[in-house]
Amino acid sequence: MPIFLRAYSENPSAVAGAVLVFALVAASILAPLLTEFAPKELGGAPLQPPGAGHLMGTDDLGRDLWAQFLYGGRASVIVGLVAAAISTVIGVSLGAISGYFGGWVDDVVQRMTEMFSIVPRYFFAIVTVAILGASLINVICVIGLLSWPPMTKLVRAEFATLRSRSFVDAAKMGGEGPMFIIFNEILPNALPPIVVQTILTISAAVLMEATLSFLGLGDPNLISWGLMLNKAQQFLTLAPWMAIFPGLAISLFILGLNLMGDGFNQALNPRLRLEARK
Amino acid sequence: MSDLLRLDAVERHFDLGGGLAELFGQRRILHAVDGVSLSIGPGETFGIAGESGCGKSTLARLICRLDRPTGGSITFDGQDLGKLNRNEVRALYREIQMVFQDPMASLNPRKTVGRIISRPLRRQLGLTGTPLRNRVLAAVSEVDLNPAEDYIQRYPHELSGGEKQRVVIARAVALRPKLVVADEPVTSLDMSVRGKVLALMSDLQARHGLSYLFITHDLRVLRIMSSRAAIMYLGQVMETGPTAELFARRYHPYTKALFSAEMVPDPRAVRRTRGRLIEGEVASALNPKDACRFRERCPWRRPRCDAETPKIDAAAPGHGVACHFWREIAAGTANSTIKETT
């Protein structure tokens, strides 16, 4: 792994991405240390512009926006990580089975994957959340269940290539069963693209959560950047800072994750690593 | 003679679908292995030679039960490979092991040499702890990778090509199988290490009484390693017999051509034999008709060659030739389309 770390750290945009992501994650985790206000605490004058007392100003009810900015990051991080974990588990399992066994198993899994990938994502998410209620768990599950098809396609392709390598035949001749071969022989060799795809899935999940919240379909009791944007709509000309800061947070977080994804891709792929050095 | 391995009319046809031709009810069937019969005795090395695409590797996979024949039967040590259940297949892999062509691809890049060799011993023989460790170290030093303690901690990318192939051989032989199927084991190695790896394989054979099925396209390797051999072309055996006999008296036109295409140290010798070199490319194994597979490139082609697949004819005890006209060719009474220069 040291080779990987060195390659990653030599790539400035990858480092910048990691810094952005870790700064925003750290800020949301350390929120209580960074502000004296609670995110839903009333009391300040409404719609104050950014200034000394309130770093990012206040909203229409006089709540501190800096506090909301910090605590709001928690929703994004949780949704991003858990939804990506769900989609990675589903995507990797189905892709591995599909690519390793091939034949009719592959056909069934691929048709299922295609059904999920042609569903209009946002429409489906909006309808589901509207019917089942806009709780954090529902939002996470919906996003997780909608994001696995690209992972499945990717893992399937990796497995289809790797299964014909002769170390797989050697494992069969060592008396190993399919589960051992899939998880112990092939999967470790397919990890690099899976890691990259997982990071990109986190980014897509964060964006989707923000979108749902912005449309008013997120958990209304949970402060998130999307929800802050949703509230800011009504005061766009009166208090533009209400929109600017959460908007900036979402953009920077997504940007950071994508830069990290690219950085991982380059650092884990020996051929790209050589090109980046030129 | 009690055979260790016996192949009876083994076929492996791949259905490639029809493409456009399927509209007319025709499917494209690739006859990768087409009616191969042979047998290997205990402790023997049987060589299989032929150009690439002649079905050698498919045959190896069939024997190792990594693929199933579409016709014929394979019998190993008295048991029909087609009738084995999952546990019997696992047990079979204590007796049959394989050495693969590309050592890089046959070692998992994420595992150390120690794990690669120990896993089958633990799974197949139930070894654990110190006995397992000792067995692994013995297997590694047996293939001349010393110090073994050092080598078992290395990853495949930290080994040279020859060392990797030694690890592959160690993994195969560690289980003390009866038969090792070696699919072009030295083809991807440097000339300088080929000889050493071949010598190692001969050593191990003598020490453990292994049988080898040795697949190669290099006739020099065939000559050194095998006691009996079969020459394959487009999925069929063209000629088979004791290796020494094949090198002394070859009857099949393809064998003659193949052997004369071999590099010869004396350029004048090449000039003398040039008249026999084959022309053209290997024909397609797609939907072959009932005819001699070699007819399109054969200088002695006659109408009968287009109408009937030759059967193996015994030229001498244990020496078979799949050619309608080998007697005439040997006697010099057949007319060749290529003039032989002398």
TrEMBL record, chain A:
Keyword Signal belongs to the record: no
Keyword Isomerase part of the UniProt annotation: no
GO biological process: peptide transport; protein transport; transmembrane transport
Membrane topology, record value: Multi-pass membrane protein
Residues passing through the membrane, by range: 12-34, 75-101, 122-146, 194-217, 238-260
A GO cellular component entry from the record: plasma membrane
Matching Gene3D superfamilies: MetI-like
Compartments where located: Cell membrane
Main localization, broad class: membrane
Entry keywords, A to Z: Cell membrane, Membrane, Peptide transport, Protein transport, Transmembrane, Transmembrane helix, Transport
Pfam families: BPD_transp_1 (PF00528), OppC_N (PF12911)
InterPro entries attached to this UniProt entry: BP-dependent_transpt_permease, MetI-like, MetI-like_sf, OppC_N
Residue ranges constituting the ABC transmembrane type-1 domain according to the UniProt record: 73-261
Family listed: Belongs to the binding-protein-dependent transport system permease family.
Protein name from the UniProt record: Peptide/nickel transport system permease protein
Origin species: Silicimonas algicola
UniProtKB/TrEMBL annotation, chain B:
InterPro entries: AAA+_ATPase, ABC_transp_ATP-bind, ABC_transporter-like_ATP-bd, ABC_transporter-like_CS, Oligopep_ABC_C, P-loop_NTPase
Location within or outside the cell: Cell inner membrane
Superkingdom, taxonomy of origin: Bacteria
Bilayer topology: Peripheral membrane protein
Keywords of the record: ATP-binding, Nucleotide-binding, Transport
GO annotation (BP), single: peptide transport
Gene Ontology CC: plasma membrane
Matches recorded under PROSITE patterns: ABC_TRANSPORTER_1 (PS00211), ABC_TRANSPORTER_2 (PS50893)
Residues of the ABC transporter domain: 5-259
GO molecular function, one term: ATP hydrolysis activity
Name of protein: Peptide/nickel transport system ATP-binding protein/oligopeptide transport system ATP-binding protein
